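REQUEST FORM: STRUCTURE PREDICTION
Request ID: SP-0412
Submitted by: Lab K.M.
Chain count: 1
Length (residues): 538
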Amino acid sequence: MNSLGRASALLAAGTMVSRITGLLRTIVLVGVIGAIGSAPDAFAIANQLPNDVFSLISVGVLTAVLVPQIVKAVAGADGGSAFISKIFTAGTVVLVAATVVATLATPWLVSLIISPDVSEAQRALAIAFGYWCMPQILFYGLYALIGETLNARRIFGPFTWAPVVNNIISIAGFLVIGAMFGTPLTEITDWTPERIAWLGGTATFGIVLQAAVLLAFWPRTRLALRIDFRWRGVGLGNIVRLAGWTMLMALSSLAAGFYQHRIAIEASGHDPSITVMNNAWLIFMLPYSVIVLSIGTPYFTQLSEHAHAGRIAEVRADIARSIRTLGFFLVGALAAVLAAAVPASRIFTDDRHEAQMAAPVLVGYLVALVPLAVLFIVQRTFYALGDTRTPFFFTIFQCVLIVATAFGAQLLHQAGVVPLSLLAATIALGQSLSSILQTIVASVLLSRRLHGIGAREWILALLRFLAAAIPAAAAGWGVFLLLGGAKGWTTADRIPAALGCAIVASVVLIVYIGILALLRAPELDALKSLVRRVVPSR
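STATUS: Completed
RESULT:
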């Protein structure tokens, strides 16, 4: 457990720095192109497309298949070098082909979200940005291939720290663009081919360096990597079979996301739309990434090892322990972000009115923060067991619900029940409710598979955390109101908003930990252990 603790601390630190610099990157970008407007939504669509396509062809395959397969391969005489060489050769070929096809298909992909009926000018701008952003697919893929291999070899740090390079480069580039062309460039007419090239090129160059920096750490794997097209006889057929389900799963999620954006784009121009949704998701992902990924990634490697060895009792213990640990930290973070939703949104908007409109979108996503952490562990346990078929079905279930709730949000808007200003928030809430139902179904299926996953133990722990979080969040909201509320100094500008967030979050966490201490929650030992690792001893 000490090695897991050290790995989690390293990942938490790297993820924290990465997410903070990512937040700064978004703040600078919002300063250049704005948060609510046709131009920022066009860039948001174009810059998101490489992530979407990459998720379709690579993320699901890597997470679901590569780590468990590498764990098995490293037991070989060569430490897995031959197998990984073949994986890298095949993966690079697929990534290059996918990048070329996706780049050529940029107009069609953009049209799936922005129809000519909405705005032909906005669609044209998104396509122009898309041509500059699509090459990111190749470098996202190489970054993931190298990073997942490092993780499988228990070299956890570089994969988490490399995005910091991307963020720094992007921040510098965005500042240069602002200095050269002025700010904010929120209107479509503000964007000439030269300005499009600067913004799109900066975004893509950061991803290139993010992948390149991982190569410096490859020697630590002690794996000899070479080009190898001899793909027969090493189990790649089994990998393709497993990956087929995850690719279908990623395709379903991608289609659901496209449908959400196609509806949300109706609000583009004057109300929260795709850019605000992306920024709210970025805030949502800060606690999720720092807590869930830093703790869950080492557990996933351990789960894969225990599952491969057939030690199911230890797999059950890993599930219960990881969910309780994640829940302790994550519920406290949830209470803090909820209480500070308005000033947190102000950091990524241009004025307090926009912050008040954006905050409900953030709250809509936050409803599913804890359930998604449970889903993270449950889904990856299926992957560790070599089962990608079952996650496909419960993900399809979620995608159907996402499409249904987004369609319902559109109907409610057309009926006059949901104003255009709350359309994005309603879509976000629908996604959260879909994720909650997905988590319940996935947990039941895994419990049946393993004849129990200690659900009673970790559900009671989560309820104990929620009992402490409710008064903690109320205390934080009270502090926000005492500071002036939505019309106070915490929403006057970005820096006061960040300071307000820190004050509110501090109060929430003090109350949260204090209540759990009174309840003598055993999970406080996890916090004490983390503090001992971070604070130097005498």
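NOTES: Residues 271-529 form one domain.
Reviewed by: T.R.
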